[in-house]
UniProtKB/TrEMBL annotation:
One of its GO terms (molecular function) is oxidoreductase activity, acting on paired donors, with incorporation or reduction of molecular oxygen. It comes from the Bacteria. InterPro entries: Bact_Lucif_Oxidored, Luciferase-like_dom, Luciferase-like_sf. Residues 1-316 form the Luciferase-like domain. One of its GO terms (cellular component) is cytosol. This is Luciferase. Signal peptide: none annotated.
Amino acid sequence: MRFGINFFPTLGPADRSAAQYYDECLRLTELADELGYHHVKTVEHYFFPYGGYSPDPVTFLAAASARTRRLRLVTGAVIPAFTHPVKLAAKLAMLDNISRGRLDVGFGRAFLPDEFEAFQVPIDESRDRFDENVEAIRRLWSEEDLLWRGRFHQFGPVTLLPRPYQEPHPPILVAAAFTPASCERAGRNGYGLLLVPSISSRERVQEMLRLYRAARAEAGHDPQKGQIHMSYLAAIAEDGAQARRAGQEQSEHYSARLVDAVASWGRTRSDAYAGYERLVEQVRKTDYWQQLAENKVLAGTPDEVAGQLEAIREWFGDVTVSLQVNSGTTSYEEAERSLRLFADHVLPRLDTTAPAHA
């Protein structure tokens, strides 16, 4: 298994200024690089305390690149539907060069109706726009004199500059929420996966991974080489009860901010998002202690969290885990403590690829 950190802000100006939040995240990123973590990841969202402090992962990851030497930089995820493919391909290629090939690109469809409305993109077109734009970006990276005639964009012939640092292009990952077909499609294309296990049952995640790995193998891609990223809220302390209380505060705060962000599903229907009209009620029913028991939240002493991760490895294989240690309720000191304890006591036990650190 490999481990990194995930920045998914669930706060706004009433909680902490954006400048302070970015400063704390960049300090944690530097620390993660020193401690031997594998990656730093961040999201793309708008408007709401649920993710709104991270409207552009590329900007944050460029700053992270300048402060680190080893960490992989992961977009988790950028949204192709909201940006012209030439613009997004060029921004990402530039970051790949700045970081000397440390970029992994995760793409997502988006799911918040308010975001689609603001960008004047019909939500029913999200799947088609996603598929078309990801393919356009991949070809812009790997081909010259590209002539593109898609449904949503037409351009060329053009040769993108700069060319990506990695050849033929950075690794591509696809965010999948509930839909097994998305996992199969990612596997057939040879892409990696971005998953959030907390929103699905263990059995459903296992089925999604089975379909993904089978599709990779059937398409001729090594089924063991596809990156599978999973993100977890995490709180670690020497006192397990203290860590679990901190995890509860993080989890309930996250759920409350998510309820606000998905409220517009109460008046929105889309065949592209079957069942999402029930999302508000599902989030409200989230029970922290049940999630902890099901290893959907990581909280406790280092030994307890290592035990949770050993169970996760048994269920899902040697996946890449992203720890979210600084939600809107967490102080910098608490987040740093979690990262240090995990690096000292869990990384040596579960991540044999991590370099030794001071």
